[in-house]
Design a protein that fits this description.
- The chain is α+β, with helices and mostly antiparallel strands.
- The chain has helices at residues 2-21, 64-77, 82-85, 118-130, 146-171, 196-204; strands at residues 31-42, 46-54, 86-96, 104-115, 136-142, 176-190, 220-232.
- The strands form 2 sheets. A 4-stranded antiparallel β-sheet has the order 3-4-2-5.
- Residues 4-22 and 193-210 have low confidence and may be disordered.
Amino acid sequence: MKIINYLLLFIISTQVISAQSGSKNFIDQPYIELTGKAETEVTPNEIYLKIQINENDKKGKVSVEKQEAQLIKVLKSLNIDIDKNFSILDFDGYFQRKFLANNEVSKIKNYQLIVNDGKTLGKVYVALDKIDVSNISITKTSHTDMEQIRRDTKLKALKAAKEKADQYANAINQSIGNAIHIQEINNTFRNNSMESNTLNAFFKHEDKSYEIENLNIKSITVTASVMAKFILN
């Protein structure tokens, strides 16, 4: 019995000594908690296009293979790197049953093309329109340094939180110390492609080459929010 009592006394004494000698939890210290926000706009240098070739889009049913050869030839004439920026998305065929005529299989092929600026985009639309390839759409826009842009925006948000903390502390004749907690709250980017009315104006113009310079791509907006706690001295 005495051994058990001595053991309990030793455990309690150890806990008291540890609590007295240990450092304070940050919750027990005066601190200030603020959120910093930042926003970065960047012009996209990767514009993703989807191009579709359908054998039934043309009179006389021009084969997918022949249209593809024309397409590649046109893109090369625009100095587009086919190996790097042009690829096949999917290839499909469907059976057409015809009344009083021979049944046949029609083929559809979808491609992805990446261009780097609005001017090249305009040239692509004009060139493909001349060979009757009009099923083209913008699927997304991006930037080659997007990860770095996101990181830089987060750092700007953290600096904004610190600047705000400094201002608040100065207002009450105090100062801030080290950061004791940092947390990302919300990090997003808004990916906007070309306005539809710009495309409509482009296609309605008789001399399409005239409108090439007006194909402006909207910037990508990257936003970040960071919450930080600083010691309040």
